[in-house]
From TrEMBL:
Coiled coil: none annotated. Keywords: Ribonucleoprotein, Ribosomal protein, RNA-binding, rRNA-binding. This is Large ribosomal subunit protein bL21. It comes from Candidatus Planktophila limnetica. Belongs to the bacterial ribosomal protein bL21 family. This protein binds to 23S rRNA in the presence of protein L20. InterPro entries: bL21-like, bL21-like_sf, Ribosomal_bL21, Ribosomal_bL21_CS. SUPFAM superfamilies: L21p-like (SSF141091). PROSITE patterns: RIBOSOMAL_L21 (PS01169). Part of the 50S ribosomal subunit. Contacts protein L20.
Amino acid sequence: MYAIVKAGGRQEKVTVGETIVIDHLDSKSGASVSFPAVLVVDGATVTSDPKALSSVKVTGEVIDDIKGPKIDILRYKNKTGYRRRQGFRTQHTRVKITAISI
């Protein structure tokens, strides 16, 4: 069984026991979070009806907060001596999926 859930502005395919990395959540390590399901596949049964999906709960446990890869930004203009260097790392949250209840 797997589900497609909305997490952090994106859709993620999740199964029970899987660890996913999503956009930053304001939750402490060990906290329980739930995600809205968009689609649920259980063997040959595919559920995509919004009324049926309103009762589906996908829960997970926050493991920790991590940082994404470093993005280097360099602005440069020729012949003027203008240079600006900047870096950025996005904040992510690692979540372990604990249950998909129908």
